[in-house]
Specification:
With about 350 residues, the protein is mainly β. Helices cover about 5% and strands about 45% of the residues. It folds into 2 domains: about 1-10 and about 160-275, Jelly Rolls, CATH 2.60.120; about 20-160 and about 285-310, Sandwich (Jelly Rolls). The relative contact order is 0.20. This is Pirin family protein.
Length: about 350
């Protein structure tokens, strides 16, 4: 029975393979130490290739950051980023004049549309203890008609994200956080307005699944055309319709069939991505995703000419004040403040 439900099993790496309408998923997990006065690591950075530090050393990477770890100002065009922060904090600044800080369960849904510059810096706000960081960044394609949308972002705050909890016959629980999509009568918060996920007929789901040891859970059948992938990123092993899947593997599943999952003896953590494909040509070069090579060349020319509106923040790697808390200040002046 499992053979027609499990279509592919693949070991995970830093960048996770995805399928239309998703483009790529990245999993960042860094054991950052206590922070210094600049909200960078309060340890020596000698021996690192600062600016291109993607090698784990002493438990963490600086990425493109030289003082604070993260990704200084860089352009995107033609797709969306969905950044799910499991632990730690991210500081956001962009070319629309927006900025913010989010983390510890928050999700940022950013539509890059016709082009924007933005940052993802990882401020080490705690000076008296370590600053561990774990997040997913998921790239979700935009339909051709939406690639010219104005850039904007929406915050899905941790305390507002719906959850579904089920209990197995043995009393063990499975909890599903609904970043996007619907499950068992509950529906996620709305995604950004231009998103492919906005239309419920596109069946876009982004679920974070936590299974207690020996819990069971059933993914419902959706549609034959659905692209469904689960990423078992932490735990020991699970059973999918009798097939053993070890941790740190991707499993492509049939979208039109119910799939029963049974966990092993450790807590299991799974990311599920599914959706109807956009079924349009994809031309991608670095941070730009369009429908043709000609459009890619036009995107680069547009960026060289306009810098997507320019950069209003001075330095390319800005961070908010250490005491800023969780907040979002949008380009139109609207402010959301959380604790």
């Amino acid at each position: 029975m499992g053979n027609n439900k499990i279509l592919k099993i693949q070991k995970l790496s830093f960048q996770w393979e995805t399928e239309d309408p998703f483009l790529i998923t990245m999993h960042h997990k860094d054991a950052y130490p206590a922070g210094n006065d600049q909200q960078g690591p309060a340890v020596s950075l000698e021996g690192r290739d600062l600016g291109q530090d993607f090698t784990v050393k002493d438990g963490f990477r600086m990425y493109h950051g030289t003082t604070v770890p993260g990704f200084p100002a860089h352009p995107h065009k033609g797709f969306e980023t969905v950044t799910i922060v499991l632990e730690g904090f991210v500081d956001h600044f962009d070319s629309t004049g927006a900025r913010g800080r989010y983390g510890n369960g928050d999700v940022q849904w950013l539509t890059t549309g016709k082009g924007c510059l933005h940052t993802e810096m990882f401020p080490l706000i705690h000076q008296d203890k370590d600053n561990p960081l774990e997040l997913f960044q998921i790239w979700l394609n935009l339909a051709a008609r939406e690639k010219s949308a104005n850039p904007n972002y929406k915050m899905l705050w941790a305390e507002d994200i719906p959850e579904v909890e089920t209990t197995s016959p043995n009393g063990k629980k499975t909890t599903v956080r609904l970043i996007a999509g619907s499950l068992l009568g509950k529906t996620s918060l709305d995604p950004a307005p231009a998103s492919w996920a906005k239309d419920p007929d596109h069946h876009v789901s982004i679920f974070l699944i936590h299974m207690e040891p020996e819990a069971t859970f059933k993914l419902p059948a959706v549609s034959k055309t659905l692209n469904r992938n689960m990423y078992f990123y932490q735990g020991e092993k699970i059973q999918l319709e009798g097939t053993t899947i070890m941790a740190f593997h991707r499993v492509k599943l049939a979208g039109d069939q119910e799939v029963e999952m049974t966990n092993g003896s450790q807590d299991a953590f799974i990311l599920l991505l599914e959706g109807e494909p956009i079924q349009e040509p994809v031309a991608q070069y670095g941070p730009f995703v369009m429908n043709s090579e000609e459009e890619i060349r036009a995107a680069f020319n547009d960026y060289r000419r306009t810098q997507f509106g320019g950069w209003p923040w001075g330095r390319l790697d800005p961070v908010n004040e250490r005491s800023a808390g969780r907040f979002a200040q949008h380009g139109d002046g609207r402010v959301e403040q959380r604790s």
